[in-house]
Design a protein that fits this description.
The structure is a single chain. The protein contains six helices and six strands, in the order αβαβαβαβαβαβ. The protein is an alpha/beta fold and about 160 residues long. Strand 2, helix 3 and strand 3 form a beta-alpha-beta unit. The two termini are about 15 Å apart.
Length: about 160
């Protein structure tokens, strides 16, 4: 599966829909958005299978998760903390969280996420670090250091088919 990485403040409207049309799981980058902005972008998605990415509390805008629950995307991912996945999982939304170190993965698993995103140091823009420090573990080392009983997907530093 190819997942289009959300790019907060850099992703043009409709980009997630185009990624879906190309065969990937398109992801709406809603980290900085109000519920109204998110609803506008959700309207573009139609019946596509897609994801939404938000920032975890305290960076999460009030009402954004309500918009996510109304739309019921296939996946909700988050960054910069941990959020309670249970209310999102109840209607069938998969919840994914990024781990930028081996220490962050168990915290996500313990919170109840459906999958961990092993986000390497090469990930562009910002990375979703949330524990002490700002670990810079390369993507070719990080996945093998993550030992959790949920799927772990590699992200960052993927440039061509060899990666």
């Amino acid at each position: 599966m190819i997942v289009q990485a959300p790019m907060a403040n850099n992703q043009p409207p409709g980009f997630a829909a185009l990624a879906c049309d190309a065969g990937a799981l398109g992801t709406i980058a809603a980290g900085y958005w109000s519920p109204e902005q998110l609803r506008d972008e959700l309207a573009r998605m139609g019946d596509r299978r897609f994801g939404v990415n938000v920032f975890a509390p305290p960076y999460l805008h009030e009402g954004v998760l309500d918009a996510v629950l109304e739309a019921r995307p296939a996946v909700l991912s988050f960054a910069f903390g941990v959020l309670d996945p249970a209310p999102l999982q109840a209607p069938g939304i998969e919840v994914w969280g990024p781990a930028t170190s081996a220490d962050e993965a168990p915290a996500l698993r313990d919170a109840g996420v459906d999958a961990v995103i092993a986000q390497g140091a090469e990930a562009g823009g910002h990375r979703g670090s949330f524990l002490a420090g700002f670990p810079l573990v390369p993507v070719d080392e990080l996945p093998e250091s993550i030992h959790v009983d949920v799927p772990a997907y590699a992200a960052g530093g993927i440039v061509d088919r060899h990666d």
